[in-house]
Design goal:
Layout (H helix, E strand, L loop, with lengths): L1 H28 L6 H19 L12 H31 L4 H23 L13 E4 L2 E4 H23 L1 H11 L1 H6 L4 H26 L6 H16 L4 H21 L8 H12 L10
Antiparallel strand pairs: 1-2
Helix pairs in contact: 1-5, 1-6, 1-8, 1-9, 1-10, 2-3, 2-4, 2-8, 2-9, 3-4, 3-8, 5-6, 5-8, 6-8, 9-10, 9-11
Length: about 300
């Protein structure tokens, strides 16, 4: 049972880093971005391309990847964030200025999702890629097995979530984001630069998505659909935790990770995709707005 808990926490770490950006976009821009999953993939492939330019640098700190991948991560965050800002300026901002409906924004995000995925397939192909072919070192304690890379994934996720909490609660920009999420019009009247908040929403959300993609590449293979396959668990976490509460979303990610682990262990891997749907239905039967959600 403890092994299932550990595996669930690892799975929840990937979901958490992806769903935070999804939650921020939903609450600040008022639409769920279906391109969030493909931004995870884009970030991973950007890091892979940059690391390939530097070649292999051996292992670093017990990881099965080299320093070139670690150095490539911040570069990929910058590039992927610039791409997200460019997409927002070219597409989403134009729709906002024209007063587009939420469904129009959602369909635009579908288009962006398909565009990003097909660009990856065009340049990288559909075959899987790897940051490394080395076997991941693993630790064993109390009958629990966890790879060093997975331990790093959990540790990085915890640090980033704590940093995000401090950012939202202690900094002026973080408080501005919360104000815009509550009421954009009132925030603008009170002198908050809403456009600046929107830019930083894309930067933070895309940055976390890039980290999720690279960390996912540490533990499994890279392929063009890796982020898209993570999209359903991310939406499940968003709905289960409560779409208007970012801390509830974190709990939702943990629950979805555990549900997927239990499904694989006691049913079959084929039912893993159905597990998030079951969790959504079960929670919404008792809490129609999610565990920590509020009425819109």
């Amino acid at each position: 049972m403890m092994q299932l808990l550990v595996d669930g926490i690892v799975a929840a770490s990937f979901i958490t880093l992806g769903v935070i950006g999804l939650s921020m976009v939903f609450n600040i821009l008022n639409f769920p971005s279906f391109a969030q999953g493909d931004q995870i993939t884009t970030g991973a492939y950007m890091a892979l391309a940059i690391a390939t330019l530097f070649g292999s640098a051996g292992s670093a700190g017990g990881l099965s990847v080299g320093w070139c991948v670690i150095i490539a991560l911040p570069c990929a965050i910058v590039l992927n964030s610039l791409l997200a800002l460019g997409i927002d300026r070219a597409i989403y901002r134009q729709l906002r200025l024209r007063g587009a409906s939420r469904i129009s924004m959602i369909m635009a995000s579908f288009g962006v999702s398909l565009m990003l995925r097909n660009v990856i397939v065009m340049f990288a192909g559909q075959d899987p890629h790897f940051f490394t072919f080395d076997i991941q070192p693993a630790l064993r304690f109390w009958g629990i097995r966890i790879a060093v890379n997975e331990l790093i994934v959990v540790g990085v996720t915890i640090v980033l979530v704590l940093c995000l909490h401090l950012f939202l609660s202690r900094t002026t920009l973080g408080k501005s984001m919360r104000a815009v999420a509550e009421n954009p019009s009132l925030a603008r009247v009170n002198g908050i630069d809403v456009d600046r908040v929107i830019r930083w929403t894309w930067i933070i959300g895309t940055g976390l998505a890039t980290v999720a993609g690279v960390l996912l590449g540490f533990t499994v293979q890279l392929h063009p659909f890796m982020g898209f396959e993570l999209l359903l668990p991310m939406f499940a976490a968003l709905i289960v935790g409560g779409m208007t509460n970012i801390y509830g979303v974190l709990l939702g990610a943990l629950l979805i990770g555990l549900v997927e682990g239990l499904t694989v262990e006691y049913l079959a891997p084929e039912y893993r995709q159905a597990a998030p749907f079951a969790a959504i239905i079960l929670v919404l039967l008792f809490k129609p707005h999610g565990i920590f959600g509020e009425k819109a």
